[in-house]
Amino acid sequence: MACEWSTVMAAFRSMVGSHDRLQPAAVRALYHANLACAVVAGLALAGCLAALGYVVWKFERRRHNLLALHNLRSIVLLAALVVCIGEIGHQWLAVDRLGRVRAGCAARAGTERPEVHSTQSEAFTADGEADAVAWATVTVGLGAAWLGLCVHLGLAWLVRTIERRDMCGLLYAVLAAEGAQSIVRWCKFKYINDVTDTGSRETGLRPPAGGSILGTPEVFLTLAGALAATALTVVDGFTLYVE
Predict the structure, then answer these.
(1) 134 torsion bin: left (phi>0), alpha (psi -120 to 50), beta (else)
(2) 92/138 Cα distance (integer angstroms)
(3) Which domain of life does the protein's organism represent (predicted)?
């Protein structure tokens, strides 16, 4: 076998930051979590752009004062954008590193052509599938990070348009999009914690001395993104209540 799954998996787990605590069997479910984030962000972005086009086309500017908590929302939005940029950077590094590992495996596969028996062939096929899942996980994660950034920017533009045209009722749509973002991020955060806890129990491993799962890039950024999305939801919900 030219390149074992453990080599690719080691690179992936290193970028995730869980090392020995994230089991290979959980990577497929993590891919589904990233895919859910991407789908929710894509739907929210599409709805945001549709609502934005409707407001701009249907209503004229008629409001001169700002919405309640305008400044607070700007601060929370800035924090959310910083988190999104951090997620993009982390996922980009993961894609780049795993891509180089896969390229090295492909190069060795082209030069080494050992005779493979049936059992070895089955193992090679399984390793190839696992490799594909790991690659899909990081690429979908990168796409979800970009979509998350676009959603925050689109919702900020929509809120500003609502503010200028005095259409506060459309804040319900903003709350729905932000609430969906918050829920899917909290679900991903809980899943990663559950996976690492399960992995520790099954293998009998303990976290490294002085280390914490909250100190890993993947989980820290997911938690920060969930907190930012929740804070935006709370601020816009209170704004809708006041208005």
Answers:
(1) alpha
(2) 8
(3) Eukaryota
Domain chopping of the chain, boundaries: 24-107+134-166, 167-196+213-242
Supply the pLDDT for residue 7. Answer: 58
Q: Which two tokens stand for residue 96?
A: 């780049």
CA distances from residue 62 to 38, 52, 87, 154, 168 in whole angstroms, order as listed: 36, 16, 38, 21, 12
In sequence order, which residues have a C-beta less than 8 Å from that of residue 230 and are 6 or more positions away?
182, 186
- Residue 64, token pair as written in the block: 């001169």
d(CA 89, CA 218): 11
Task: Give Cα 131 to chain centroid, integer Å.
Answer: 20
Over the stretch 192-209, which tens digit does the pLDDT of each residue have?
Answer: 777 655 444 444 444 443
* CB distance 133 to 31 below 8 Å: yes
Would you give the DSSP letter of residue 64? -
65 Cα distance to chain centroid: 35
Task: With a cut of 70, list the residues of the chain below it in pLDDT.
Answer: 1-25, 62-65, 104-131, 195-215
What is the model's pLDDT at position 186? Answer: 92
CA distances from 109 to 4, 11, 12, 127, 156 (A): 11, 18, 20, 13, 49
